[in-house]
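pinned: reference chain
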Amino acid sequence: MSLQRYDEEVVIAVASYFHLTVWIVQIKAAFARGFVQENTP
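pinned: its structure tokens
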């Protein structure tokens, strides 16, 4: 029973980590896009 609970917590932690990583990548991509647009003549 405790092992299943542990697995659930690990899955939640991994999902949160991946969500955060994707979020950061999207922000960086948005900044990169804005940066390129600002610097194109």
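why pinned: The chain has one domain: 1-41. The two ends are 62 Å apart (CA to CA).
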